[in-house]
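ping. complex inputs:
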Amino acid sequence: MPSFHRHVFVCINERAPDHPKGCCKSRGGVEVRDRLKSELTARGLSKLVRANNAGCLDQCEQGVTVVVYPEQVWYGHVTVDDIAEIVDKHLIGGEVVTRLLLPDQPHLGERTAFGALEIGTSAR
Amino acid sequence: MPSFHRHVFVCINERAPDHPKGCCKSRGGVEVRDRLKSELTARGLSKLVRANNAGCLDQCEQGVTVVVYPEQVWYGHVTVDDIAEIVDKHLIGGEVVTRLLLPDQPHLGERTAFGALEIGTSAR
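pong. complex structure:
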């Protein structure tokens, strides 16, 4: 059953060290993805929220980029220290972590909250 | 501006050749992704629809897996020969390619159509 409640993609694209755009891998993308996976596992949520690495999300100037679907919320400059907050506030609680939002997301309108995760006792 | 109208992820996860689950890479995931990117580019849509590779989408028994967001439509057993139809019918036209749908997608309900892509002359 592929309908995870939320699906999170972390850019881990790698470019040559001298590439002018840099890349998410050199900025810590792999560590961010690993922390995200481990925080989800620690909370027993890996069946409800899927974390995946992704190729270049085309936001290279924004540090490590993370996008949360289905609400399509884009975060930039994400570090491992931000992951617990993203998990607890957004992925579980449904509230956007506004301090990490990338600019120019007109599809969100003024919306900063989505549904909280429905966690049954059996799911954890 | 990160709000692509549609965002498509193709699993290209690779496992050891003797792994019992197999993997999307050995089943043609990379070729599927490349065809998707080239078909989008050929139609001038790369700014509106983003195609990305992804890590394991956890549907390993379903052949090459593709998921389309924000509608969260999952396709399985996708080959390069399916890509033109996915692009024209779904990514542009908004209609789900029902013959490729993975089973058990309760979040879709009975829905098989989403909005068609709004393509201005300037976008192409």
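Helices of chain B lie at 29-42, 83-92.
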